[in-house]
């Protein structure tokens, strides 16, 4: 049985955009993320490994207001306290971050909790632990998460066959390779640099959504 949170994710969320540190010159976090929402981002995650906790809280406040305006969920990477403070919809945790059980206990049953996974065992553990969705990656090598070995589209295909909760393919995904990722079995994709570093983030998001819709039709 899928929970209500999981089915919400299942139905509505196809393009997942994460904030970054490197925006296109002259652009700000609020401006870029609003463009992604205009272009069709279905969910936004705040993640900036270069920012202090105070800066992140400030960014979270800006994004909470913005995502509310567009009716899109806001997820906070790693920081349960910040998620609670700004009333975010949930958190995303890495394999080395705080535990899923702790996040669920502190955020409650309505929170969306996602887990990064890099192999099937991680995925099945997150699923058994009550995660609402998982990240599957990095599919390709990426400067956004340096030093992490690419799992290739093989893991995407494995996840599509074996994981029952929604999964989002992530890592090095661009408009040039998203068709391969979708053909490997992904139905949801996540991007950072391809979107937030682009001169026109809205146009990139629209193109991602078109690829996703085309893959749905072909399936
Ligand atoms: N998590 P880009 S890969 C934040 O595999 C993140 O868990 C990953 O950024 C994982 O779209 C990644 O710029 C970076 O490659 C994604």
Mean pLDDT across every amino acid position: 94
Spans of at least 5 consecutive residues whose pLDDT stays below 50 are none
Strand order of the largest sheet: 7-6-5-4-3-2-1-8
Radius of gyration: 16 Å
Instruction: Give the total of beta strands.
Output: 8
N-to-C SSE string, H for helix and E for strand = HEHEHEHEHEHEHEHEHH
Count of discrete alpha- or pi-helical segments spanning 4 or more residues: 10
Q: Which compounds are bound in this model? A: ligand 3NM
Rounded to the nearest angstrom, the distance between the terminal CA atoms is 24 Å
Helix content: 40-55%
Characterize the largest beta sheet: strand count, sense, and whether it forms a barrel.
8 strands, parallel
Strand content: 5-15%
Structural class: alpha/beta
Principal-axis shape: globular
Oligomer: single chain
Family: Belongs to the thiamine-phosphate synthase family.
Protein name: Thiamine-phosphate synthase
Pathway: Cofactor biosynthesis; thiamine diphosphate biosynthesis; thiamine phosphate from 4-amino-2-methyl-5-diphosphomethylpyrimidine and 4-methyl-5-(2-phosphoethyl)-thiazole: step 1/1
Binding site for Mg(2+): 78, 97
Features:
single chain; 219 residues; alpha/beta; eight-stranded parallel β-sheet; 15% strand; globular; binds ligand 3NM; Thiamine-phosphate synthase; magnesium; thiamine-phosphate diphosphorylase activity; metal-binding; thiamine biosynthesis
Task: Summarize the helices and strands and which ones pair or pack.
Blueprint: H1 4-12, E1 15-18, H2 29-39, E2 43-46, H3 53-70, E3 74-77, H4 80-86, E4 90-93, H5 100-107, E5 112-117, H6 120-128, E6 133-136, H7 152-162, E7 167-169, H8 178-183, E8 189-191, H9 193-196, H10 201-218
Parallel strand pairs: 1-2, 1-8, 2-3, 3-4, 4-5, 5-6, 6-7
